[in-house]
Amino acid sequence: MPDPHRAQHSGAVRVTLLTEGTYPHHHGGVSVWCDQLVTGMPDIGFDVVAVTGTGREPRVWDVPGHVRDVRSVPMWGPAPVGAPPRGRRRRLLMASYERFLTALLDPGAEDGFAPALYELAHAARDGLLSPALRGDDAIRVLTDVWNRPGLPVGEASPTVHDAVTATGLLEHALRPLSTPPPQAGVSHAVSGGVAVLPGLAALRLHGVPLLLTEHGVYLRERYLGYRTGPYRWPVKAVLLGFFRLLAEETYRKAALITPGNRYNRLWEEQGGAPSELIRTVYNGVDPAAFPPAGPEPAGPTLSWAGRVDPIKDLETLIRAFAQVRTELPAARLRLFGGTPRGGEAYRERCEALAAELGHGGAVTFEGRVDDIKDAYAAGNVVMLSSISEGFPFTLIEAMSCGRATVSTDVGGVREAVGDTGLVVPPRDPSAMAAAALELLRAPARRAAMGEAARLRVIEQFTLRQTVDTFREIYVGLASGTARAARSDADRSGAGRLRQVAG
Q1: Distances in Å between the alpha carbon of 265 and those of 84, 212, 276, 297?
Q2: Is 113 within 8 Å of 201 (Cβ atoms)?
Q3: Could you count the other beta carbons within 10 Å of the beta carbon of residue 133?
Q4: Which of 285, 296, 475, 492 gives 20 to 30 Å between its CA and that of 440?
Q5: So where are the chain's domains?
Q6: In what helix (H) or strand (E) does residue 212 lie, and over which residues does it extend?
Q7: Are 13 and 44 in contact, with CB atoms under 8 Å apart?
Q8: 356 burial class (0-12, 13-18, 19+ CB within 10 angstroms)?
């Protein structure tokens, strides 16, 4: 039977996906989600603006033919082409940059953030911003702002080294402003943060509606990352101020916000997003592609799948497994997934921890697996130990495969699992170990949970539902329906992210 959506809308809608560190250059849950949307809508034309690391990353996803253009915006590769401004243009740009920095550091000046950001965006399009921020003038401006009386950051005694570090990090973070923004269709940012910058510019310049999807809360993850980051507080104050105000501006300007779970929605509402413009859209999987996994392994085995990354908190999982082995000495822990470039030290730390605890031989890092279903089938119980998640694919895929799960209570995990798995606090090895032991010792309960988990996926989290929902959203945004709702919405409440983040 012909698809009525395709018959009616073929070629009528164009969508630019705005990504950061994901599709089409990296594996991971968000990349899977992007690929599902793109391949599931051959009737929609797509472009991709991908914020990458160096710009040399190969594409790891096969991009279908209806994706017209994929443009990489490297944050850490060669600097954008351009020359520093001179004369009056230099003075005007530095004045805009001063207002921008003041907004980041002075709570009473935050209203100046958006106007200054768009002034910087104009300079970036002319090839002036990046060269200007690599010069001494930008460092002097930040030092002057830091030293103003009454600003809390001054109590941390910022140094010239701090100013050089913060200025360099901001220069890299603002590089996406230098890429030509979409001129028509719909901009779809698949995360918050720097990926949104071309979308904000497209809205400002060309009236292109901006759709925002947050799988994890970008701002929350920045706070988690900078908590243990190598920078002094003055540097963190600048960067976290930027990410917070950028999130608020994005929430103010997005025509529609589609969080992947209700937890994200709370952050967005606190950031000033009108509740009537937030629509939760869960991730989905194809139950036929993730059928029941079949027989369990003969010996007690915990399996995990994902990328080897600190946010996945494998250290807590390994510590929990050590406690499991005191009760079940034959237990194994099998970890499936690649290690991102630059993450090798974290994997080595996890391997060293397993050895230090005396269980190195029972913990295996097995790398990427050709068929992810094999990773779920490898365990009696599938584990998820993350300290931050959106609505994790690995969880609903494992549920579709009929495996019982133990997961940390972060993001949309509890919404996904319901009562078909066990949920424990994050960073709590003892609670995780107790839950794993509870299921490893109860085969009948595991089987019942697995059957209930697969039924839950079929009823609530199918890929078809996800794709159809986003097709409807794209068509509505392109036709102006959602933009009209945006203009009528109450946009009050900006600034509340400071309260929830603090």
Answers
A1: 41, 12, 11, 39
A2: no
A3: 26
A4: 285
A5: 4-75+181-282+468-501, 87-173, 301-460
A6: strand 210-212
A7: yes
A8: exposed
* Dihedral (CA of 426, 431, 436, 439) sign: negative
Q: Output the pLDDT for position 217.
A: 81
Beta bridge partner(s), residue 15: 46, 186
Distance separating alpha carbons of residues 338 and 9, to the nearest angstrom: 39
Question: 459: how many CB neighbours lie within 10 A of its CB?
Answer: 8
Cis peptide before 24 (omega within 30 of 0): yes
Distance CA 157, CA 177 (A): 31
SS3 content of the chain, % helix, strand, coil (to 5): 55, 10, 35
Determine the pLDDT at residue 155: 86
Tokens 């279903």 correspond to: 373
Written as six digits, the tokens of 76 are: 């850490």
> Running along the chain, 502 residues long, what does each successive block of 10 average in pLDDT?
39 90 91 95 97 93 96 92 92 97 96 97 96 96 94 91 97 96 97 96 97 88 83 94 95 94 87 91 95 96 95 97 98 94 91 96 94 97 94 94 97 94 98 98 97 97 95 94 50 42 40
Distance of CA 306 to the CA centre of its chain: 14
In the chain, the amino acid numbered 281 is V
Q: What does the alpha-carbon distance between residue 200 and residue 216 come to, in Å, rounded to a whole number? A: 20
For domain 4-75+181-282+468-501, say whether CATH 3.40.640.10 is its number.
Answer: no
For domain 301-460, give the CATH number.
Answer: 3.40.50.2000
pLDDT for the residue 142: 97
pTM of whole model > 0.70? yes
State whether residue 211 is helix, strand or coil.
strand
- CA distance to 98, 105, 142, 396, per residue, from 148 (Å): 12, 10, 10, 51
Rounded to the nearest angstrom, the gap between the alpha carbon of residue 207 and the centroid of all alpha carbons in its chain is 25
- Predicted confidence at residue 486, as pLDDT, reads 52
Rounded to a whole number of angstroms, the distance between the first and last alpha carbons of the chain is 54
What's the full length of the chain, in residues?
A: 502
- Tell me the two tokens of residue 495: 């600034």
Angle of helix 113-125 versus helix 87-105 axis, rounded to 10: 140
Tell me what pLDDT residue 3 has: 42
- Same topology, domains 4-75+181-282+468-501 and 301-460? Answer is yes
Task: Tell me the C-alpha distance between 104 and 238, whole Å.
Answer: 6
Structure tokens at 30: 């968000």
Residues in CB range of 307: below 8 A, 6 or more apart: 27, 28, 337, 338, 339, 340, 343
